[in-house]
Amino acid sequence: MITVLYPWALLLLFLPFVVRRFSSPVSGLHGDALRVPFLHEIARINVLSGSLWGSPSGEGKSRNWLILYFAWFFLCLAAARPLWVGEPVRISNSGRDILLVTDISNSMREPDFSYQNQRIDRLTAVKLAADGFIRNRPNDRIGLILFGTRAYLQSPVTFDKQAVLDILWSTDAGMAGQSTAIGDAVGLGLKNLRDEKASSSGKVMILLTDGENNDGSLSIPDVLKMAKDENVKIYTIGVGSENRMIGSFFGISVPVTDGLDEESLRRLAAETKGNYFRASDTKGLQRIYQEIDRLEPSLDEEQFVQESKDLFFYPLAAALFIVLMLFVLRKRGY
């Protein structure tokens, strides 16, 4: 479809008729007439049967006036700025921003999960579960924070899911240090969601860890207050086998405590209207992400865009071509 951006400019099409109807003809090119550059050159242009100004032939005069009016027509058309506008194209714009805050401390190397009958470490199990979750949210913006001793924003919330997945799969346990700064990670996530101006109805954080807050400058009560102020819902996931046994020096299996601070994780989730989950195997972890996916459906807000293309240069080129041809014809003596 073709339209014009400034339709009022088309009113200028009538200007030559108004001027010709109500103004008195100039008797000559001298006296009180307004002088403009190249006026004498324009006055001497001859097209076919005579001068543009004061042609002795009425037919030639009308023809020359018509040619100049065509140039004026195309100039007015260009000033109206014609546009080609395509059909409306639907795009999806999510109302949710989901930030994955994932523990990659050294303890995530623990190979107490399994996948397809093979032992895998905790971080690999997290990657598998999070991969499916991210791919299942095509209309949401997803971000990623990785933390250990320090917290690092790897990707702000974005529609580029593949970039987030590439970063996640390239991660190794221990890259961010040995300890676990949960408070700093959550605090960094809250800052990112605020800076990104996320929707107040769709700010969600998924915190996954296998430890307790034993490093960093922010405590759990600190970030809990911040999360309430920012209206961010936090889902927390505790990772690790609940009844893990290892062999001792004497060949006797003894229970091992992971040091998971479930009380703090439950509090973070409960007081921000989220949920706490415990994942002790790969299938359980995948079910948790599926449950969060169910609890936080995408807020798919329909928006439409239309492709447009400027066309003003076509009538502008036509007007310039007409004027140029008049000069060329004059030089050749027509």
- Arrangement of strands in the largest sheet: 10-9-6-11-12-15
Radius of gyration: 37 Å
- Report the order of strands and helices: EHHEEHEEEEEHEEHHEHEEEHEHEEH
What would you say the CATH architecture of the largest domain is?
Answer: 3-Layer(aba) Sandwich
- Give the CATH superfamily of the largest domain: von Willebrand factor, type A domain
Give me the secondary-structure topology:
Blueprint: E1 2-4, H1 15-22, H2 39-43, E2 46-47, E3 50-51, H3 58-79, E4 82-85, E5 89-94, E6 97-103, E7 113-115, E8 118-120, H4 122-135, E9 141-147, E10 151-158, H5 161-169, H6 182-195, E11 203-209, H7 220-230, E12 233-239, E13 245-247, E14 253-255, H8 262-270, E15 276-279, H9 282-295, E16 300-305, E17 308-310, H10 313-331
Parallel strand pairs: 6-9, 6-11, 11-12, 12-15
Antiparallel strand pairs: 1-4, 2-3, 4-17, 5-16, 7-8, 9-10, 13-14
Helix pairs in contact: 3-10, 4-5, 4-9, 6-7
Protein architecture, described:
With 334 residues, the chain is of the alpha/beta class. The protein folds into 2 domains: 109 residues, no CATH class; 214 residues, Rossmann fold. Helices cover 37% and strands 23% of the residues. It has a 6-stranded mixed sheet with strand order 10-9-6-11-12-15, with helices on both faces. Strands 1-4-17 form a 3-stranded antiparallel sheet. Strand 9 and strand 10 form a beta hairpin. About 7% of the residues have low confidence.
